[in-house]
Amino acid sequence: MQWQPDPPRSFLRNHFDVIDSASGSFTVDTAGRTISGYADHKGGKLYFSATVDTAIAASGGGGTGWVRFATGANQQVTLRISTSWMSVAQAAANLSQEVGGKSLDTVRDEAQAQAQWDTVLGKVRIEGATADQMVTFNGEMSAWYVFSAMGFHPARMGSTDYTIGAPLFSKATISLENGHTLVVNAPGVSDTNRYIQSAALNGTAYTKNYLAHADLLAGGTLSFTMGASPSSWGTGANDVPPSITSGTAAPARLTDKATGGTLTASGENGPGEARDKLTDDTSMTKWLTFAATATLTDQLASAVTIKQYTLTSADDVPGRDPKNWTLQASNDGVTWTTIDTRTNVDFADRRQTRAFVVPGTASYSRYRLQITANHGAAETQLAEWQLLG
Ligand SMILES: [Ca+2]
Ligand SMILES: [Ca+2]
């Protein structure tokens, strides 16, 4: 069996062509006018199920099969086919759900499938690719592959930079959503010439081994000179992507500086719900005061810089959750500096830990949480309070 779609999408043929492939299966249900089976395709089985609208006169074969129709001159036979990577049954279900008895023209008109297909594939135009590379590229639905084939990839998720690898094609033209066009040139790129020797962005030498998102959005021309050996391109100290840490030391996680400090509280429900329950490292215990506002102070053994602090809601009564507060800091217990202010904070869940970033870098030996409003209850409570630095 051979599937021959329009020439521009001839890569489809490879998926369905089982004439010259190693193996496959081909089953004909004459009474049901159904043809099904699978083709081995790059390690997986691509199952198919097809129906025809004309009586099957004869058929034969096994891994390679054929079907004959007793047609008159110029009589058209319509074959509807669907595929699945799971099973013939799934392929048949896909055919029933997606196409049913509709003609190809009907489906195409309803879904504007042709236009959408052309639009999607038209976003990237490739030059200098082999037929097999185009089969892989156009059949690939994974962003990582498309990015990599273009020559760059968002290796550091959450950042705005794209790490440059090496392009796969001698020329790729990407039509961006904003109307700009990015052309990636790599003349002479091949399995041998796969190392970047130099690069230029819009004609200017580009030594960084990453691209900024803004550069991509601006469009333009990115050109690579390729070679057969690794080069020193992109290895300069300022050529590597920016780091979220500074210096050469390994990143260290923040630790809770509140632990071991001397706590005082404006009120508490001791001993079961006393202030020490704020720093006992479990949200199963809580501090509670019989007031709608509260002041909590932690005097530490030495001055530390706090980068974040966390508050954990307690097990019950959301009305007791803090809503408005300031975090203040001091080194002498007399002069207090407000280092963070929060209003209308909501704890959506019980025993929910919320982290708050402190912008300043100064170090202090005392920290004071001034809860100026809660969510309406006569009491205020918290399960944990951490000072992370
Ligand atoms: Ca703790
Ligand atoms: Ca606790």
UniProtKB/TrEMBL annotation:
Superkingdom of origin organism: Bacteria
Residue ranges of the region described as Disordered: 232-279
InterPro entries in UniProt: FA58C (IPR000421), Galactose-bd-like_sf (IPR008979), GH-type_carb-bd (IPR014718), Glyco_hydro_92 (IPR012939), PNGase (IPR050883)
Record-annotated F5/8 type C domain positions: 246-389
Protein name per the record: F5/8 type C domain-containing protein
